[in-house]
Amino acid sequence: xxxxxxxxxxxxxxxxxxxxxxxxxxxxxxxxxxxxxxxxxxxxxxxxxxxxxxxxxxxxxxxxxxxxxxxxxxxxxxxxxxxxxxxxxxxxxxxxxxxxxxxxxxxxxxxxxxxxxxxxxxxxxxxxxxxxxxxxxxxxxxxxxxxxxxxxxxxxxxxxxxxxxxxxxxxxxxxxxxxxxxxxxxxxxxxxxxxxxxxxxxxxxxxxxxxxxxxxxxxxxxxxxxxxxxxxxxxxxxxxxxxxxxxxxxxxxxxxxxxxxxxxxxxxxxxxxxxxxxxxxxxxxxxxxxxxxxxxxxxxxxxxxxxxxxxxxxxxxxxxxxxxxxxxxxxxxxxxxxxxxxxxxxxxxxxxxxxxxxxxxxxxxxxxxxxxxxxxxxxxxxxxxxxxxxxxxxxxxxxxxxxxxxxxxxxxxxxxxxxxxxxxxxxxxxxxxxxxxxxxxxxxxxxxxxxxxxxxxxxxxxxxxxxxxxxxxxxxxxxxxxxxxxxxxxxxxxxxxxxxxxxxxxxxxxxxxxxxxxxxxxxxxxxxxxxxxxxxxxxxxxxxxxxxxxxxxxxxxxxxxxxxxxxxxxxxxxxxxxxxxxxxxxxxxxxxxxxxxxxxxxxxxxxxxxxxxxxxxxxxxxxxxxxxxxxxxxxxxxxxxxxxxxxxxxxxxxxxxxxxxxxxxxxxxxxxxxxxxxxxxxxxxxxxxxxxxxxxxxxxxxxxxxxxxxxxxxxxxxxxxxxxxxxxxxxxxxxxxxxxxxxxxxxxxxxxxxxxxxxxxxxxxxxxxxxxxxx
Length: 775
Description:
With 775 residues, the chain is α+β, with helices and mostly antiparallel strands. It has 26 helices and 17 strands. Strands 1, 2, 3, 4, 5, 6 and 7 form a seven-stranded antiparallel β-sheet that branches. It has a five-stranded antiparallel β-sheet with strand order 9-8-12-11-10, sandwiched between helices. The chain is flat, with a radius of gyration of 42 Å.
C-alpha cells in the first residue's frame, strides 16, 4: 500500500489539481447544459414552435406579395407611361419611317429599364392587332419571335397563345416549357420551365391593342419562396381548389386537407392530422384565391432537444467516473517522470537559448519547455520541406545538362533528396521556349516575369494528364520530362497538346514554342533528349500562336530562305538610298518579309536576313552621317532580336527606318501632305482610298496612316469624315438640295450611312439640323 500510494508514486495535490481542473472544465459545463436543456431549452422549443412558424410564414407571404405587387406596379407604370398610342399609329402605316425606328427603340429601352427584380427573366410587347412583337433586343413578326427569340415547346404553344385574348390584369399563365436556341436555327441548347404574367392595354378594354408579357423562370420563383429553415419540409403557393401554382421542396398537399384547414383554423395556426407533421397557411393579400402553405416537420424541429436531453444525462455520469479514474491515473503515472524530466531539463537549461520561465508547478514548466521545442522543430521541418522542390528541380536540371550520367550517382543523390523514379523506363524531354513580346519587356519587371513563370509552372502541373518532371534550365526555357507508360495512352504528343492549351492562356504576354525531343530508354540519357528538343527550337516560326515542333514537322511546309543579301541586293539598297527614296527602302524590307511569310521561313532565317538588311542600311547611312555611335546601332540590333512575330519585326523596321531616315524625310513630308490635303478638299465627293495615297508616296498603308496622323494631327478617316460633314452642313443651310442629293454630293453611297454618320457627330439627323438652323 505504501508503495502504491507512496509519495514517489502518487501525489495527492497533483490528483486534486487534475480533478479540480477536470471538474471545472468538463463537469460543471455538462451540469449547466443539462439543467438548461431540461428547464429552458426543451420547453422553449415546444412552446415557441407555433409562434416561430406563424412569424416565418407571414414574413414569407409579405415578401412574396410585395414582390408580385411591385411587379404589377411596374407593369402598370410601363404601360401607362410608354408611347404605345403613337407607336400603334406608326405600326399601322404601310411604310416604316424614321420615327418608326425611334419609337421602336424607345419601347426597347423602356423594357430594358423596367425594374422587374430578380424573379423576372425577360419581358415583351405583344401587339394583338398587328403581326409584331417587340422584345428588349428585337422587333419581329409573331411567328419569328416564338420560333427563334422566345421558342415555346409545341405542346404548350397553343395554350400559351390563348392568353392573348380579352382584358387581362396581372393574369398568370400555366407553366410552360421554354427552349433556348442558337439564333435563327432550330438547334435546342437547353430548356426551362417558365410562367408568365400578362397585362392588357388599354386597361379597361375588352378588345385591347397590346399585351405586356413578363416571363419568369419557375426555378427562380421556387428559390424566392423557399424558407431556409431545416424544420420546414416545403413551401408552396396554392389556390383555393388545392392546385399547386409554385412550390419549393418536397410538398404533397391533399386538397381536402387544405379545405378542412381553411374552414376550421385561423391563419398561422398549425393544423395536423398526421403524427409529427403539421400544416400552416396564410391567405395572400395580392390574390384572394391564393394561399401560402408551409409543411412543418415537428420531429426534425424537436430532434436536437431530444438528443441534448439524452446525451447530457449519459455524459454527466460518464464524465464523473472518467474524471476520477483519469485524475488518479495521471497523478500516479506522471509524478515520477515529471520530476525526472524537470531535473534533466534544469541541468540543460543553461545550454538552451529558448526563453523558459520558472513559473507554476513542475508540469507547467515541462509543458512550456516542450511547446517551445515543438515550435522550433516545426519551423525547421517546414523550412526543409519547402526546399525539397527547389533541390529536386535543380537535380533534374543537372541530369538534363549531362552533369549526372552515372546510374549509381543518380540513384544515391535521388535517395538523399527523397526523389523517387523508375530506372528502366522510357522518357522524352519537351523544351518550352518563352519569347516575350516587345511591349511586355518594356512594361514588366524581372520580378513580374518570375511570378509569371511560377504561375505557368503551377498551371502546367495541375493540367498535365500524367505525372511529369518540370524544371527551368534557362531564364526563357522550361524542360518537361514525360514518362512513357504501358497503362496510359498519354505520350509526348498528347502531353505537348495539353501544354499548348495551357500556354495559350499566356499568349497576350509571350510566344511559346514546344520542342519534342527524342525518346530515350534510360534516365542517364535524358540529356540527349534535352539536346534534341533544344535543337528543334531553332526551327520555330514567327507566328504568334503556340508551336509544337517535332523531328517530323521541323521542315514541314517550309522552303529554304537565303539568310544573307546577295551582292546585287546590297547594291540595289545603296542605289535606293542615294536616290533619297527612303520610303522604298522600307517597302523593300516589307516585300522581303512578305516573301518569307509565303515560304513559312523560320525565325532564325528571317532574323539573320533582317540583320543583314539592317547592317546594309547602317553602312549606307555611315557614308554621310557621323553623328550615330556604336551603342545606338547595338540597341537597334537588340530591338530586332527581341521580336517574336512577323508584326513585331515589321513594326521594328518601321521604327528603325524612322530613327535612321527621319531627318531626311521631315523636310519633304509637310509638302507632300499639303498636296494630299488640297486634293481631299477639291475631290471630297469622290472615293478617297488610303491605299491610293500610300502607293503615291511609296508607303505601306499602316505607315502612311501613322505618318498622316503625326503630320496633320488627326486620323485619315476622321479628317475626311469631318470635312465631308462640314460641306454637308453648308449644303443643308445654303441650298435647297434634298438629303439624297447632298449624300451623293459629299461622297456617301447611301442615305442610311450618311444619316448614321451625321447623327454620330452632330447628335441629330440632317433634316432636324436644317429645320433648327432655318428658324
